[in-house]
Each structure stands twice: as C-alpha cells, then as structure tokens.
Amino acid sequence: MRWEVDHSSREALPRQIMACVRRGVASGELAVGEQLPPAAELAQALSVDRNTVLAAYRQLRDDGVLEFRRGRGARVASAVTEPAPVTEAAQALVTVARRHGLGRHDLLRLIEKLT
Q1: Is the Cβ–Cβ distance between 84 and 44 less than 8 Å?
Q2: Count of CB atoms within 10 A of residue 60's CB?
Q3: Interhelix angle for 39-46 vs 50-62, to 10°?
Q4: Is the pTM for the entire model greater than 0.85?
Q5: What DSSP element (H or E) covers 76?
Q6: Mean pLDDT, rounded, of the chain
Q7: Does 25 score more than 90 pLDDT?
Q8: Burial class (CB in 10 A: 0-12, 13-18, 19+), 18
C-alpha cells in the first residue's frame, strides 16, 4: 500500500490520506478487517501531524469505511465504492464532452490540468 501525500497540493492533507485509504480498499490492497497503521506511526512516515491522520481516520469512520476498536486501532470496516454524486458528475462530464466532440484523451488532459 502506498501512503503518499503532496505537501504542496491545494488538497487538504486529511483528504489526501483519506484518498489513500479509499484507493487501497478499492484496489484490494486493504481488505475488510485489515488494521491500518497507528496514527502516530503514519504521521511520522508522512511528515504530518498525528492529528491530521486522526482527522482522516475519524472522517473515514464517519463514512463507514473504518471502525475503531479500543486497543486494536483502526480497521477497514467495509469496501469502498465511488460516491454516487461523483459518479453522476463524471457521467455528466463525459456526456457533455462527447456532445462537444471531446474524446477520452481530451478529458484526461483537462482533468490533469485542473488538478
């Protein structure tokens, strides 16, 4: 599992950590029931504050992705699927792009430029 954050990115560090977990679950690198690194350990590895990792873990818990167990840390609670609003927005983007003659590579370039 690749834990990476970009300290120069506009995206908040907790969101980047959340994205790492979601990608890990979606790709199968993190299985349901698997324990995540302790917040202090991951914070040190990513050169972020422990509270940054805890904020990401708490939000993932609130989203139903993680569960906390006293003395056992954070574990993957369920498989992650793409959020419905994101899927719907992506489908709308593809539809509009096709209507304007843009193909897959055009869309990918646009997304890379915007992110």
Answers
A1: no
A2: 23
A3: 120
A4: no
A5: strand 73-76
A6: 89
A7: no
A8: buried
User: Of 5, 19, 14, 6, whose CA–CA distance to 86 is shortest?
Assistant: 19
Distance between CA 26 and CA 82 in Å, rounded?
9
For residue 73, count CB atoms less than 10 angstroms from its CB and return exposed for 0-12, middle for 13-18, buried for 19 or more: middle
56-101 tens-digit pLDDT = 999 999 988 999 988 888 999 976 656 656 777 888 898 899 899 9
Torsion of CA 75, 78, 66, 12, to 10 degrees: 120
Which pLDDT belongs to residue 82? 60
Distance from the first to the final alpha carbon of the chain: 23
Query: What is the C-alpha to C-alpha distance for residues 52 and 47, in angstroms, rounded to an integer?
Result: 10
